[in-house]
Amino acid sequence: LVDILGQLALDxxxxxxxxxxxxxSALQALLVGTLPLVCVTGAAVAVVExxxxxxxxxxxxxxxxxCYSGLVFIWLILxxxxxxxxxxxxxxxxxxxxxxxFMFVDYSTDCxxxxxxATMAYSWFVVFIFPLGVPALTLLLLAWQRVPxxxxxxxQVHMRAALQCIHAIKD
Length: 171
Hints:
Shape: elongated
Structural class: mainly alpha
Largest sheet: 2 strands, antiparallel
Order of helices and strands: HHHHEEHHH
Helix content: over 70%
Strand order of the largest sheet: 1-2
Number of strands: 2
């Protein structure tokens, strides 16, 4: 599963070579890869809701839904890459000849250290946000928008039927 997610991943960390700025542990790489997205999402929600409450007429429902749809789209685009990073960080430790164990993704982190424990704790936290939370949130939003989606789909069916009638008359 990790290899398949890696092929689909849009990895923003991979686009920015962090190694050029110094050495980063697995925990630091996870933080750099996940916290900005969470912060941007929180800021975007705060701005959308703030504009909606502050303006006299409020933000239209359609505009608010468009903003939230854009956020979900960004989360779904980044979902495979972040999930891939998290699952790689959670892989079993590599054992070397001397009996020392190091993280598979970061050979500078001993598997019996506080850094390893912090990385695992943060990884489990991120698992609930991204690999479990993003699909659950998407399902919730789709269920919430079920009627408009069904209406749109029915409209598409009727439009297709009308276009087929027009083409049949034309021919």
